[in-house]
Structure formats: structure tokens, C-alpha cells
Amino acid sequence: MSRQRTAQIQESLEFLESLEKHYRDEPQEARIKMLRILKENPARTLEYAAKTAGCSERSVYRWWGTYQTKGLQGLLAPRRDASANTPRIGRNEAEELREMLQSGKLSTLNEVQAWLDKRFGLKYSVKGVANLLQRRLKARRVWIVSDGSEIRVAEYKKPEVKEESPIIPDKVLQFLNRLPLISDTQRAVEAYKAALMDLLGEVDRVSIYININCDLHDPQAYQPNIVLTLDTSSTDELISVTTHQEGTRPSDRFLENMRAQGAPLDTLHAPVVFDYYYNDLAFLGTIFLWRDRTKPAISKRVQDTMKLLEPFVIYMLSDLISRHHYANPMDRLFHDALKTMSMEAGLSVQERRVVMLRLLGHAYKEIADKLNISEDAIKKHLGSVHRKTGTRSYTELFAKYFTPRLNLNNS
Question: Of 148, 243, 267, 339, which sits most exposed with the smallest number of CB within 10 A?
């Protein structure tokens, strides 16, 4: 039977990922990897973590018990018991040994063995030293050649470095520093677009759509099949509405809207498009990269750069949506009220679309154009909504589902 977990992992996924990199090639790496695997999906079992991490179930059970009683600090502490006789070399000691080998101050296994004993009190066999060099220090080849005098280490060479380069390239650093931490969504989108254009270089225009109704707390929650988006690419309007039909990508619907609004797409190359999702479930937004037809199409280098930036863009969009919700709490309440009405009344997908657009103030003709249906069909859907909700007018509908949640009773 799968072992159930009752305790929660307090550390964030981002922190665990960075900690796993920090302890790479050290005993603690496997323990952090176990926590990271379990943190990614609370439904995962200890058996799953053991199989995925390539560890024994016994070890994972022991580590999980230590984490529950002693926390992360206890989990990372080295084991000190009578059975732990095998010497271990730490990160700092390994780097010092690497420098000694690369500088030529140590050249034989016997010299390394003696140096480890004298410098750190670590007693390795000659075979243990050879394994250490191969597995821990990644020596390309270790030759053990007995010539009657000594055992030598061959082909441990310092890797060639063509030139020093910063960990974070200047251009990427400038891009990150230009991103604003503000709740004004329109200003933030404009700043994102300008920063992306400067970073990518060969892009003439950037369009960004953001699903401001994305539920980051419950990405699997009710989907209204209506995406409220922010688009400042072609108009000064802050909010535009588009349908999100099952089986089509959001970006396809946005392109249809652009064509319907008369955007000059014929003067541009086909866009490079990226749809972004939170936890691969909830739609966050779409970014279009455009270039004039008078110039070469956007290069693969730019596309590869955007793919490398994908985790950060997902974070960027999620952060902006969170800030928008914090600065505009009424938007969240309106969405929740619409969700409750749709679930309680059992509205169909098309009924949800029609009533949402109507509540947002769109006229029948506008709704008909957006949904590609007749005005008579719209009236029929709205009549069905009133029957299912037990209301006779928009006033009753709003009073029943929206007034209590939006706290409008005294307004």
C-alpha cells in the first residue's frame, strides 16, 4: 500500500529547486530532490518519490520521518552514527583538491591519498582515491599503472576557458531590471513589451494578452470559456473580451479577433506565438512577436530565447495577475459570483458566454458578432438563463447572485 503523507512541506518549490542545485553531487541532493518531487504534487506518495529520485524506499521513509520531526535543517544535517565509517569529502575540500591537481602540485594517487590524510584527516584507499577523482571531480580518465615505484594519475587536465563571461549576460540583466513591480496592469504590459523588444532586438512589435480571471489558487477550477484579456497592442482599451472555445488555442481566437478588427496583418510576417499556462492547466496569457514583411522573418535564435525564458514569463504573468487581483478586488468578486451562478443553475457553455457578455454591457449585436450567432439565438439563451436561475430580469439576476457578493446592498 502507498504510504500517505499528512505533513505539509513548508518550503517553496523555487527554494527547493535552488537548494537542490546547491547540493549537487553531495549526499543532501537526494533528500532535497525527494522534497521537491513531493512538493510539485501533494498527491504523490513516498513510493513515487523513491522511484523517481532513484532511491530506496527505506531511505525515503527515513528522510521523510526526519523532515517531519526535525524540519529541513535536520534533514540536511550529516548522519553521525557508528556505521558511518566511510570518509566523505565535502564541497570545499573537493574544490581545493581540484585546484591542487590542476596546478600540478599533486600528480599521483599516492600523493592525493597522503594529502587528504594530512590536510583533512580523511583516510582513503588508493582505489578510493581513484573513484573519488572519477566520480566526484569528473576526471576524464584515471590510469593506475604500477611501474614498481608509484601509481600515477593521467589525463586530469584543466578545462580550456576561452573567455570569462558573467553568470547573467548584461542584456538579460537589463531586461530583468526594467520589469516593473506595479499593480497598474496597462503600464506593466507596456513596460513588458518595451523590455522584450529591447532584449530580442529583431522584433518590431509585441502583443500581450493576459487572462485577468485566471484563478492561481485553484487552476483546475471552473472555466467560463470566456477569457477577459488586457491587450494594448492596437487600441487604448484596457479590457477586451474574446471567447475561448474548447479544442482551439487561445492565440487562434486572438488572431481571429485581430483580423475581424481590421488589424494590418498582411504587412507583417506570420507571428511567433506563445501561449502560457499556470501549472499546465490555467491559461495565463499569450505573447505575439511580429516583424514587418520588408525585413527577414524572426530568427530561430529569438524563438529559442523565448523558450528559455518560458519559466520566467509564466512567473511574470502570474505575478501581474496577482497584483491586478489585489488592486481590483471587485473583478475577482464578479468572476466568483458568475462562477456560482453558472454552477448552481447548470448553465451551458453558450449560456455562460452570452450572459457574461451581456452583464459586461455588450449589446445584442456585439454579442452576436463575437459569438457568430444570431440575435434571436442570443434572446433564446438569455431566456433559458432566466428560467434556470428563477429570475425574470437582469435586475433580479444581479440582485440574486452579484449584489450580495459585491457588497452593493447599501450603495
Answer: 148
Q: Give the cell for residue 306.
A: 523565448
Per residue in 68-97, pLDDT (tens digit) is: 888 888 888 765 543 344 456 777 788 888
Instruction: Tell me which H or E stretch contains 301.
Output: helix 300-308
Angle between helices 300-308 and 185-200 (to 10 degrees): 130
Give this prediction's pTM.
0.47
CB atoms within 10 A of CB 405: 15
Please choose, from the candidates 214, 253, 290, 270, the residue with its C-alpha nearest in 3D space to the C-alpha of residue 372: 253
What is the identity of the amino acid at 339? K
* Per-residue pLDDT at 368 exceeds 80: yes
For residue 91, give the nearest of 181, 17, 22, 40 by alpha carbon.
22
* Distance in angstroms (rounded) separating the CA atoms of residues 262 and 86: 73
Question: Rounded CA gap, 403 and 393, in Å?
Answer: 14
**Cell 514569463 sits on residue:** 313
**Distance separating alpha carbons of residues 398 and 333, to the nearest angstrom:** 13
CATH class of 170-324: alpha beta
Question: What is the per-residue DSSP string for 193-251?
Answer: HHHHHHHHSS-SEEEEEEETT--SS-TTS---SEEEEE--SS-S-SEEEEE--TTS-HH
**Which residues are CB-neighbours of 60 under 8 A, at least 6 positions away?**
34, 46, 47, 49, 50, 53
Lowest mean pLDDT among 16-30, 152-166, 203-217, 370-384: 152-166
Sign of CA dihedral 138, 115, 87, 20: negative
